[in-house]
Design a protein that fits this description.
Blueprint: E1 7-11, E2 18-20, H1 26-36, H2 57-61, E3 66-69, H3 76-84, E4 93-96, E5 117-122, H4 125-140, H5 144-150, H6 154-159, H7 172-183, E6 187-191, H8 197-203, E7 214-215, H9 231-240, H10 242-253
Parallel strand pairs: 3-4, 3-5, 5-6
Antiparallel strand pairs: 1-2, 1-7
Length: about 250
């Protein structure tokens, strides 16, 4: 198979594309190729009940004890490129990430019984819902109004192991259980461009000065801005995503 040799990146909030190929930015080319082909991805599959019937403790003990829960549309792709594919990172990190459509009816991850050091990224819930609509609409095939009506609190929902388009309704008890995990330092949460990211960098033992600042989620063909979404719809999203908003604000304040 012939390797892909042309890539386009962006630096921070700069919208000027950075062309990466054999004749420009040669140092970035290998990193882009490794990332494109998931060379260093360590996908995490939650333990199944059948594990208890087999003597595989020695096998499990060899797996990394860091787990990145990659919630869709929260900046996780750029995080992988800048952090997990960072040559200065020494820690091995498992990644839990999925998007099933139609969604599965049962959760695939139980963060409350995990013994790994878990961390994740959050994003402004209104922006996350809007971004998810434009990114996944080729699957859901619905209007933005219907999408925002059907799917809410998708960040907490994903932390609970459900697909973001699952019909599961997040409860106050779900929210409080996650807060408890956070307070017990069993789940570390970061938000881009805030000091909360330092908690993640400390956990994975990577100096913030070594972290790159490339953006990889400016996909061609998926263009939208806040003016495409009415103020009334934004207010509706805020109303319907109360637990995601509470969690987001809790992390910012703590």
């Amino acid at each position: 198979m012939e390797l892909k040799t042309d890539f386009v990146l962006f630096k921070g909030s700069d919208n000027k594309p950075i062309v990466v190929n054999h004749t420009s930015n040669i140092k970035l080319l290998k990193k882009c190729q490794d990332f494109w082909y998931h060379k260093y991805d360590l996908k995490y599959k939650p333990k199944r009940n059948l594990f208890k019937f087999f003597n595989i403790k020695s096998f499990l003990s060899k797996t990394p004890d860091l787990l990145f829960i990659h919630i869709p549309k929260t900046g996780g792709t750029s995080f992988k490129f800048n952090v997990i594919y960072n040559p200065h990172l020494k820690s091995k990190i498992l990644i839990y990430h999925k998007f099933n459509f139609p969604p599965k009816s049962k959760p695939e991850l139980d963060i409350f019984s995990e013994n790994k050091k878990m961390f994740t990224l959050l994003r402004d819930p209104v922006k996350t819902i809007i971004s998810a609509y434009y990114h996944f609409n080729h699957f859901t095939n619905t209007s933005i109004d219907d999408f925002c009506y059907k799917y809410r609190n998708i960040q907490i929902k994903f932390l609970l192991g459900y697909d973001i388009c699952s019909k599961y309704e997040v409860t106050k008890n779900d929210f409080l259980k996650i807060i408890k995990l956070i307070n017990e330092k069993k789940l570390i949460i970061g938000i881009y461009n805030t000091k909360t990211m330092l908690n993640i960098y400390n956990l994975i033992e990577l100096s913030p000065e070594k972290v790159d600042n490339y953006v990889l989620n400016k996909k061609r063909g998926i263009k939208y801005s806040s003016r495409h979404v009415s103020k009334n719809l934004k207010k509706y999203i805020e109303k319907k995503n109360i637990y995601d908003i509470k969690l987001y604000n809790y992390i910012l304040k703590n």
